[in-house]
Design a protein that fits this description.
Helices cover about 55% and strands about 15% of the residues. The chain is of the alpha+beta class. It folds into two domains: about 1-100; about 105-169, DNA Binding (I), subunit A, CATH 1.10.30. The strands form two sheets. The protein has a three-stranded antiparallel β-sheet with strand order 1-2-3, with no helix packed on it. About 10% of the residues are buried.
Length: about 170
């Protein structure tokens, strides 16, 4: 704190590169206490502002990191979904090719691979009543009426449900 001088009934002081003006009646001790109090309050405000800025920066970094993790999760999910769709399209293409494009099939019995896929898809249970006894592979559209041995044209039915279906066709 440096005294700069007096003019117009005021004292002029230099405190930390700031110019202060005090009334004539304020003593040097009173002014020093006032400046100290003001300086402490300013320091507290600055410390609070700095702490808030650091907290805000930490929150922004955490939000950015969380966003990056979410974006990575989305990317992984998209890759898995693309792979799943590809497998479905390959299965569809195979079923179309197995269908001989609507021509009657030469083979009357579905292949082991097709039967295994139908069994797995239907959970080893009759699609009519849920029974697990006396199961048969049923052509949804019979071969005689243009059906195929494709996975999409086969289902598991128990003996009773299959006979009931045959009687209704």
């Amino acid at each position: 704190m440096a005294y700069l001088g007096e003019a117009d009934g005021h004292h002029y002081w230099m405190v930390n590169l700031d110019c202060w003006v005090t009334p004539d009646h304020l003593s040097l001790d009173e002014f020093a206490r006032h400046v100290t109090r003001v300086t402490r309050n300013e320091a507290r405000r600055e410390a609070r502002a700095e702490a808030q800025a650091k907290e805000q920066a930490a929150q922004q970094r955490a939000a950015k990191a969380a966003r990056a993790r979410e974006d990575e999760l989305i990317s992984q999910a998209r890759l898995l979904d693309a792979e799943r769709r590809h497998r479905e399209e390959v299965a569809w293409a195979r079923s179309v090719l197995d269908d001989n494009h609507g021509a009657p099939t030469k083979r009357r019995t579905p292949t082991r691979k097709v039967r295994a896929a139908v069994w797995e898809r239907d959970g080893g249970a009759c699609q009519g009543c849920g029974s697990t006894q006396l199961l048969q592979f049923d052509h949804i559209i019979p071969l005689a009426k243009g059906g195929s041995n494709a996975i999409t044209n086969l289902q598991l039915l128990c003996d009773t449900c299959n006979q009931r279906k045959s009687a209704s066709i």
